[in-house]
Design brief:
By secondary structure, this protein is mostly beta strands. It folds into 2 domains: 35 residues, no CATH class; 175 residues, Jelly Rolls (Sandwich). It contains 3 helices and 10 strands.
């Protein structure tokens, strides 16, 4: 018996477990049985609270992992501008993707922009955290903004905004950078439109790459946002 027991113990470590235990259908490196958000990337945690952003986010398709997810966002481009899903990722993961907003120059006017946005229901008077990752290639800048509305029709139509908060921009960044911060909503606000935008500089074009846009309610953090 003393010879059999060591053999059984060693065999237990050599025999693989069931196939379902190691399956990872969405390719984010987290096994299906431990996956908090099937079809999204559980590893993204921009606010560093040890909780996957995908489980806290009010926005749908904010990781731009596929064209299907991007359908939740509205494309507002014209002229020499375009949007599309890129294979690059703000976290460096091969599995995921990002959103490209491109303005192709030269231009006749000094300023021109193109945006991609999503409308979502929010709690009136609440505090929210708005963040995103951005990469700006060539001259130009990327802007992250939130517009507040009293009803869904105005939000969808981009008319009658109660307020607009711009959480900074990035000019000529090389790598991926985090952008954004906390903000307070008006007591009349029931819907919010989150925008990611490309702004050209001078007459030349610009490519901005966006990933992992996060909008989540805040309970305790103070609101620190500069409104325009």
């Amino acid at each position: 018996m003393t010879r059999i027991v060591p053999f059984l113990v060693a065999a237990a470590f050599l025999i693989p477990g069931p196939a379902w235990a190691a399956k990872d259908r969405d390719g984010d490196g987290v096994r299906d049985r431990d996956d908090a958000c099937e079809g999204q990337d559980d590893r993204v945690d921009l606010d560093a609270n040890s909780q996957p952003d995908c489980g806290e986010n009010l926005l749908v398709g904010a990781g731009f992992d596929s064209v299907d997810q991007g359908l939740a966002w509205e494309d507002d481009v014209s002229g020499n501008s375009s949007t599309g899903v890129s294979f690059e990722d703000g976290q460096g993961y091969l599995y995921s993707g990002s959103l490209d907003i491109r303005l192709s120059g030269p231009f006749d006017t000094a300023t021109q922009g193109s945006r991609f946005s999503s409308c979502v229901e929010v709690e009136p008077g609440s505090r929210q955290l708005l963040m995103a990752q951005v990469q700006v290639q060539s001259e130009g800048s990327g802007e992250l903004a939130l517009l507040e509305y009293g009803d869904l029709v105005d939000c969808l139509g981009r008319t009658g905004a109660l307020a607009r908060t711009r959480l900074g921009g990035r000019l000529g960044t090389v790598g991926w950078e985090d952008l954004g911060g906390p903000l307070s909503l008006s007591g009349s606000t029931r819907y919010a439109r989150v925008e990611v935008r490309a702004e050209k500089s001078g007459q030349q074009g610009v490519l901005t790459r966006w990933d992992n846009v996060l909008l989540k309610p805040l309970a305790d953090e103070p609101a620190l946002a500069s409104a325009e």
